[in-house]
Amino acid sequence: MARGWRYEAKRYGAPLAFLLAVTVAVLLVRSGLRSDPELTTTTLRTTVGRTTSTPTGTRKGPARRFYRLRSGETLSDVAIKFNTTVEELEVLNPGIRPTNLTVGQRLRVQ
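Request: output the structure for the sequence above.
Response:
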């Protein structure tokens, strides 16, 4: 019994449309969760007529810098990305276990 092209379109089109919708949703959520410092914006409020002074020279060393692990990354991947060593990352992150890393885990890299 021939069912026709409309039946075949429904049979294959509905699951295909569902998979496409799920893929788009996953990509949107993933991009929303990603926290790249280059992609974030900061709004500063300023007031006119007010002056403030900040102490200079009070900083001791470089500012702390953090990185969130992505899927499939290891400590050596992060070390290469930030031009450092795995040993230095272990010193900066004393409680870290290199064999038990998780996606989204925050690492100090500087």
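Helices lie at 5-33, 75-81, 86-92.
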